[in-house]
Predict the 3D structure of the following.
Amino acid sequence: MPVIEYQQFIKAPVDLCFDLARSVDIHTKTTAKTKEVAVDGVTEGLLEEGDTVTWEAIHFGIKQRLKAQVTLMEKPNKFVDIMVKGAFHSFVHTHQFIESGGTIMIDKFQYKSPFGPIGVLADKLFLEKHMREFIVSRAKALKKIAENMH
């Protein structure tokens, strides 16, 4: 099961970074490359524990839908969302925030590809790289927003 971990330092308070990371509206702004929009569940505002959101996005030229649910919320330090329905076999995305002269935001994305051995091959060839770039790009965009607000 591939694990992608990325840390981003943000010169902004932990509460602000936490709320921006769970904002459906900000998520849409930070994923412009894949044209993500919330189409079901919570479609605006802040996600809370138990909430679901269905994202529609374009990955690899294909429009896809993915339903995620927030399964843990420890304000303002951590929240976890999991895939309920979508293209992956499964995933767990942990968002952690540590106050340290600003905020250290840590994304940990663990996923399992569908299609058994073919999925493992896809991971090695392109999927893991694509997901890492997606997470890094989103973190950098969130950093820019947070630092401009602070």
About this structure: Residues 55 and 66 are 5 Å apart (CA to CA).
